[in-house]
C-alpha cells in the first residue's frame, strides 16, 4: 500500500498540505537531482564547519507573488510591492532536492496569535501554515535522505505588528523540545560537531533570545547567535558561541547598501560582491580553521534605488540590459576556488544561475586538520 494511503501517511499528508505554501507541494518531494544526497560523499568525521553549505536567505518567500500579496492584504493592510519581499522562486522541498542545506526562517505570530508562522518584514507568507507543519516536512524529507543534514536559522521577525511576548517564546520552546523534535534536532549545545552526528537531523542556529521564559524551561541546544550580538548590516561580525572552546561564527550580513553615486545598479552589485568576496577569502584562511563562516550574498531593496530589488541584486535585469548580478559573479569566483573551505553561503534566487549550488558544494574539501 502506498505510504500516503496508510493511516500515518494520511495524517502526514494533511500536515504537508497545510504546510504547502511554505514547503511546496508533495510532488516536489520526488523531484530528485544529483544534489539530493550530496553529503553522502563525505565521511562521518567531517566537521560541519569544514563543509561548504549552500543556503537560502528569507527561504519562505518563494511563493510571495503579487496575487498572494493581494489575497493577504486583509491581514497586512497595504504594503509595498511584492518584489521587495520576494527572495526565492523554488519551494523548500525543491531547494532540498537541489542541494540547499541551510534555511533562513523568519517567524512571528500568525493571525489570531495562536500559531507561529513565517514573515518577511510586514509580508505575511501564509496565514494557515504553522511552524510545526514546516518542521514535519523537514523531518519527512530527512527520513527519505538519511545521509543529509539541514541547518535551520530561526529568527524572530520584527515589524509584523505582532509581539515577541512570553507566550510566543513559550510556544516556540515547546515546539522545539517536544519528544518528536528531540529525535530530529541535534541536541548538542554550543557546538556544531560532525556530519556523522548530524545526519538525518536538523541543527539549530538560534538567532532569537528566550528572554521571557519561565525559569523552569531550561532545555537548550544548537548554537546561539543572538540578536544583540549580531551586528545589523555588518560586514564581519564575530560572535563567540562557546566561551570554553572559543568556537565562533564570523558573519557577513551587509544588506543595506548606500545609494550609488552614479545611480546605476551595477555599482551597488559590484560593491556587494566585493564585500562577499572579502568574507569568503577570510573563510579560506587557516587562521580560522575550525570556525563557522556565514556569508549572505543577498541584499535588500532601498527606496533611494527603486530598481534594486533583491532579484536584481542577485541576477540582474535583462530588461534594463543588466545581464549579471551577484550570483553570476559568485559562480565565476567559485569556479576559480574549488576545494576551498567557504562555510555557509546564503543566496537569493539561486536557481536562476545554473550550477551555482553545485559550485558551492564543489569538490571534496581537503582535510583541515
Automatic annotation (TrEMBL):
Gene3D superfamilies: Phosphatidylinositol (PI) phosphodiesterase. It comes from the Eukaryota. SUPFAM superfamilies: PLC-like phosphodiesterases (SSF51695). GO terms for molecular function: phosphoric diester hydrolase activity. GO terms for biological process: lipid metabolic process. InterPro entries: PI-PLC_domain, PLC-like_Pdiesterase_TIM-brl, PLipase_C_PInositol-sp_X_dom. Pfam families: PI-PLC-X. PROSITE patterns: PIPLC_X_DOMAIN. Residues 86-206 form the Phosphatidylinositol-specific phospholipase C X domain. PANTHER family: PLC-LIKE PHOSPHODIESTERASE, PTHR13593. This is Phosphatidylinositol-specific phospholipase C X domain-containing protein. It comes from Psilocybe cf. subviscida. The lineage of its organism: Eukaryota, Fungi, Dikarya, Basidiomycota, Agaricomycotina.
Amino acid at each position: 500500500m502506498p505510504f500516503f494511503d496508510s493511516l500515518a501517511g494520511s495524517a502526514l499528508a494533511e500536515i504537508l498540505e497545510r504546510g504547502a505554501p511554505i514547503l511546496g507541494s508533495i510532488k516536489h518531494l520526488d523531484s530528485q537531482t544529483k544534489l539530493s544526497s550530496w553529503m553522502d560523499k563525505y565521511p562521518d568525521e567531517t566537521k560541519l564547519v569544514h563543509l561548504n553549505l549552500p543556503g537560502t536567505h528569507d527561504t519562505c518567500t518563494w511563493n510571495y507573488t503579487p496575487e498572494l500579496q493581494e489575497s493577504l492584504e486583509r491581514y497586512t493592510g497595504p504594503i509595498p510591492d511584492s518584489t521587495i519581499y520576494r527572495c526565492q522562486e523554488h519551494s523548500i522541498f525543491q531547494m532540498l532536492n537541489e542541494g540547499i542545506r541551510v534555511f533562513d526562517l523568519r517567524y512571528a505570530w500568525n493571525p489570531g496569535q495562536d500559531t507561529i508562522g513565517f514573515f518577511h518584514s510586514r509580508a505575511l507568507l501564509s496565514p494557515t501554515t504553522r511552524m510545526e507543519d514546516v518542521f514535519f516536512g523537514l523531518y519527512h524529507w530527512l527520513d527519505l535522505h538519511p545521509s543529509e543534514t539541514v541547518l535551520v536559522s530561526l529568527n524572530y521577525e520584527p515589524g509584523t505588528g505582532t509581539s515577541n511576548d512570553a507566550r510566543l517564546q513559550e510556544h516556540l520552546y515547546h515546539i522545539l523540545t517536544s519528544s518528536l523534535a528531540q529525535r530530529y534536532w541535534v541536541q548538542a549545545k554550543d557546538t556544531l560537531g560532525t556530519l556523522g552526528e548530524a545526519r538525518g537531523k536538523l541543527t539549530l542556529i538560534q538567532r532569537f533570545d528566550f528572554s521571557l521564559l519561565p525559569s523552569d524551561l531550561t532545555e537548550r541546544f544548537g548554537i546561539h547567535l543572538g540578536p544583540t550580538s549580531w551586528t545589523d548590516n555588518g560586514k564581519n561580525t564575530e560572535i563567540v558561541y562557546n566561551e570554553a572552546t572559543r568556537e565562533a561564527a564570523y558573519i557577513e550580513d551587509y544588506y543595506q547598501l548606500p545609494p550609488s553615486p552614479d545611480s546605476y545598479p551595477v555599482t551597488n552589485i559590484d560593491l556587494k560582491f566585493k564585500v562577499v568576496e572579502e568574507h569568503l577569502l577570510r573563510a579560506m584562511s587557516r587562521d580560522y580553521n575550525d570556525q563557522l563562516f556565514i556569508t549572505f550574498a543577498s541584499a535588500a531593496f532601498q527606496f533611494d534605488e527603486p530598481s534594486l530589488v533583491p532579484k536584481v541584486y542577485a541576477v540582474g535585469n535583462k530588461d534594463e540590459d543588466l545581464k549579471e548580478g551577484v550570483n553570476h559573479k559568485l559562480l565565476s569566483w567559485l569556479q576559480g576556488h574549488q576545494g576551498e573551505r567557504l562555510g555557509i553561503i546564503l543566496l537569493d534566487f539561486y536557481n536562476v544561475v545554473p550550477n551555482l549550488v553545485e559550485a558551492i558544494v564543489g569538490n571534496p574539501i581537503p582535510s583541515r586538520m
